[in-house]
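Q: I'm building a small set of examples for a reading group on sequence design. Run inverse folding on the following structure and report the sequence directly after it, with nothing in between.
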């Protein structure tokens, strides 16, 4: 299908692009490669191959694919070793932080430009959509403190849940900045977005060099996820109407 690529803006053949990269859905697929979905209303449904739209040309899809492949390899396929100095965080050493940052931005940007209702809470606005698009197009991940990303591995009953995906929403932080949050493969992502980027800082990104820190937290200590699980449980236990 011919159209305008959302990233490079060239008129080309446009491919179906996953908004959330396909590897995150792995544990959720059934034998027929259908995605098992359990939203907060407790209504179990199945959809084929995740959520996607026609967004990118082949060249831009390949760009994103490189970042996705690298991220999957170092976080989930044993490409880098985890080092833990406490029960509250883990560190990946030897990471290409710029590539990881571009991967995070690419997911947030796709959510924002998507027309699918499940991503409706992500609306970066013209300024941030254009700025992140510029960074992605230039493959410029040199300033990860511009849109700080925090990663938290969420434990349920003391165990990681790699099949957990939670749709995005946002809140204001203590300084009034918008913070987008979502869960992919059992990792909670918090991304700070502010037009006044001079006010943003992230020691986590600035001082780690080639290291990525992943915090570890029990779901009961993450209020928005705790409340979501309680909503699911309440709806599952609700008597069905006859």
């Amino acid at each position: 299908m011919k159209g305008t690529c959302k990233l490079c803006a060239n008129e080309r053949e446009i491919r179906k692009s996953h908004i959330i990269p396909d590897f995150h859905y792995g544990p959720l697929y059934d034998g027929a490669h259908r995605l098992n979905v359990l939203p907060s209303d407790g209504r179990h449904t199945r959809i084929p191959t995740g959520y996607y739209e026609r967004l990118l040309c082949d060249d831009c899809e390949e760009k994103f694919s490189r970042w996705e492949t690298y991220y999957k390899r170092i976080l989930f396929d044993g490409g880098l070793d985890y080092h833990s100095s406490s029960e509250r965080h883990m560190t990946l050493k030897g990471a290409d932080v710029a590539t990881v940052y571009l991967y995070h931005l690419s997911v947030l940007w796709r959510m924002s430009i998507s027309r699918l209702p499940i991503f409706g809470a992500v609306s970066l606005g013209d300024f941030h959509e254009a700025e992140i698009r510029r960074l992605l197009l230039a493959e410029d991940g040199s300033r990860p403190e511009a849109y700080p990303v925090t990663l938290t591995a969420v434990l349920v009953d003391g165990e990681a849940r790699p099949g957990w995906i939670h749709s995005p929403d946002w809140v204001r932080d203590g300084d009034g900045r918008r913070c987008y949050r979502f869960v992919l493969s059992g990792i909670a992502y918090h991304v700070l977005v502010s037009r006044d980027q001079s006010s943003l800082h992230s020691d986590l990104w600035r001082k780690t060099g080639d290291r990525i820190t992943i915090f570890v937290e029990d779901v009961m200590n993450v209020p928005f996820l705790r409340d979501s699980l309680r909503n699911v449980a309440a709806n599952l236990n609700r008597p069905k109407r006859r």
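Residues 82-242 form one domain.
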